[in-house]
Amino acid sequence: MASKQDNLTAVLYGIEDLRLEQRPIPVPKDDEVLLAMDSVGICGSDVHYLVAGRIGDFIVKKPMIVGHESAGIVAKVGANVKSLKVGDRVAIEPGYGCRVCDYCKGGSYNLCPDMIFCATPPYDGNLMRYYTHPADFCFKLPDHVTMEEGALLEPLSVGVHACRRAGVQLGSQVLVLGAGPIGLVTLIVAKSMGASKVLVTDLLQNRLDVAKELGADGTLLISKTATEAELVKQIHELMGCAPDKTIDCSGAEATTRLSILATRSGGCAVLVGMGPPEVKIPLINALAREVDIRGVFRYCNDYSAALSLVSSGKINVKRLITHHFDIEETAEAFNTARHGLGGAIKVMIHVQPKDKNNPK
């Protein structure tokens, strides 16, 4: 049994150097809560920092606690916190802005230049037993929503934001490029928002099989030898039309290009996945056909909608979770996520000692 002062923490020191160590239990500020962390999912960005030590201009220059897809139980509240109490189960929105800049005041806090986001250098994440977070970015979970589902609100919010940016609505014909976790949540959100047809593409058949389980109307296994023209033709034939909304959840140059080429004239291509800083795209094709190209950076004001989708039972995110580990097994959990072992989609780490775990 762990001691009361046990705050086992997963810390990334550099490339291929992830360690478990004890850290002091933090004290919440007046507007914060102390959380006994419960479930933390491994995101592709966590793996990327482990493998490459950076994502674009975000570089790991000092030891950084990993993890940002998470849920926990309120253990202590700050002096000014009125919205939560000890014992509340909450999902944690991991990024918050300065609250005073024009972006924050305008409601686009995801674009705040001083955004603090868990496990994005130079800020620590929350794969640890005890963690403090602003109370207004903690979302109380209904009793019937599990802690794991709470942790999955983070990737689900990306799907909500992507579909909102795309303008998905009743009758939309949607193409989703990539059937990783973000592609799959985008699929289920698009269906919940009224899309009449969603086609999902990927390089791996096992992920497309999951997409079918989650409600995809069609899937396309991408052949690496197929030309762009052939892929566009296949997509249009499978959908019976050109999609009016395409959401690229891969970020590879090939899918960024395909998102433009496959979208109907006057439609919208939304880019969620992030690849190289510069890519070659058929821009004149998009201009001549008035295809809107929109970017997605995380999410903004989407957690409440994501929670409503889960709590109402309209969508089921549990199927995304394929593997479970305890925090002591963090290295094995990352290896599983990194290499997709056993058909891994979402790997979940359970943080509290086993004798303290709530029934899942």
TrEMBL record:
<dbReference type="InterPro" id="IPR013154">
    <property type="entry name" value="ADH-like_N"/>
</dbReference>
<keyword id="KW-0862">Zinc</keyword>
<dbReference type="GO" id="GO:0008270">
    <property type="term" value="F:zinc ion binding"/>
</dbReference>
<dbReference type="InterPro" id="IPR045306">
    <property type="entry name" value="SDH-like"/>
</dbReference>
<comment type="similarity">
    <text>Belongs to the zinc-containing alcohol dehydrogenase family.</text>
</comment>
<dbReference type="GO" id="GO:0006062">
    <property type="term" value="P:sorbitol catabolic process"/>
</dbReference>
<dbReference type="InterPro" id="IPR036291">
    <property type="entry name" value="NAD(P)-bd_dom_sf"/>
</dbReference>
<protein>
    <recommendedName>
        <fullName>Sorbitol dehydrogenase</fullName>
    </recommendedName>
</protein>
<keyword id="KW-0520">NAD</keyword>
<dbReference type="Pfam" id="PF00107">
    <property type="entry name" value="ADH_zinc_N"/>
</dbReference>
<keyword id="KW-0479">Metal-binding</keyword>
<dbReference type="GO" id="GO:0003939">
    <property type="term" value="F:L-iditol 2-dehydrogenase (NAD+) activity"/>
</dbReference>
<dbReference type="Pfam" id="PF08240">
    <property type="entry name" value="ADH_N"/>
</dbReference>
<dbReference type="InterPro" id="IPR011032">
    <property type="entry name" value="GroES-like_sf"/>
</dbReference>
<feature type="domain" description="Enoyl reductase (ER)">
    <location>
        <begin position="14"/>
        <end position="349"/>
    </location>
</feature>
<dbReference type="InterPro" id="IPR020843">
    <property type="entry name" value="ER"/>
</dbReference>
<dbReference type="InterPro" id="IPR002328">
    <property type="entry name" value="ADH_Zn_CS"/>
</dbReference>
<dbReference type="InterPro" id="IPR013149">
    <property type="entry name" value="ADH-like_C"/>
</dbReference>
<keyword id="KW-0560">Oxidoreductase</keyword>
